[in-house]
């Protein structure tokens, strides 16, 4: 599984699973340094309006971000809201992915399983939405 695909699924993974994955890395006793401790910030959320397909700024969103490093390689974690533990754990997992560290292939296997779970949830949500979709018929006049 490539890194881009893994990075798309990470924000959707349950907090406890992210914590467990980070501890797989932290338990290896690597000398991981915290470059930027978890701290709050605001980012501008962009959206796209559907009529003219133009982007616009929806508003600011509160995030927590963190940066860690091992040697010259860094890992970055960012999550919505005030959640310093999740930001730190995301940074550790990102660092592991950047370094290619995955003891026993557990990180990749877990993220693949989570990707499958998220995909199934999206499909179920789509089916529920499609079922309640109203269809209009226009009668000739």
Walk me through what this model shows.
With 141 residues, this protein is an alpha+beta fold. The chain has one domain. The chain is 43% helix and 28% strand. It is built from four helices and three strands; from the N terminus they run ααβββαα. It has helices at residues 3-9, 15-26, 84-99, 106-131, and strands at 33-48, 55-70, 73-80. The chain has a three-stranded antiparallel β-sheet with strand order 1-2-3. A hairpin with a 2-residue loop joins β2 (55-70) and β3 (73-80). α2 packs across α3 (84-99). The radius of gyration is 20 Å and the shape is globular. The mean pLDDT is 88.
Characterize this entry briefly.
This protein is α+β, with helices and mostly antiparallel strands and 141 residues long. It has helices at 3-9, 15-26, 84-99, 106-131, and strands at residues 33-48, 55-70, 73-80.
Output the helix-strand order.
HHEEEHH
How many helices? The count is: 4
What low-confidence regions span 5 or more consecutive residues with pLDDT below 50? none
* Main beta sheet strand tally, sense and closure: 3 strands, antiparallel
**Strands, count:** 3
Mean pLDDT: 88
Estimate nothing, just give the exact number of structural domains. 1
Q: How are strands sequenced across the largest beta sheet?
A: 1-2-3
What brief labels describe this structure?
141 residues; alpha+beta; three-stranded antiparallel sheet; 4 helices; 3 strands
């Amino acid at each position: 599984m490539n890194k881009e695909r893994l990075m798309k699924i990470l924000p959707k993974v349950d907090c406890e699973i992210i914590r467990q994955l980070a501890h797989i890395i932290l338990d290896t006793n690597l000398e991981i340094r915290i470059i930027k401790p978890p701290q709050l910030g605001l980012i501008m959320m962009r959206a796209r309006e559907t009529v003219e397909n133009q982007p616009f700024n929806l508003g600011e969103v509160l995030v927590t971000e963190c940066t860690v490093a091992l040697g010259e390689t860094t890992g970055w974690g960012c999550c919505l809201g005030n959640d310093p533990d999740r930001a730190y754990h995301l940074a550790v997992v990102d660092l592991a992915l950047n370094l290619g560290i995955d003891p026993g292939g557990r990180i990749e296997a877990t993220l693949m399983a989570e990707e499958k779970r998220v995909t199934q949830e999206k499909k179920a949500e789509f089916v529920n939405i499609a079922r309640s979709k109203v269809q209009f018929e226009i009668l000739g006049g």
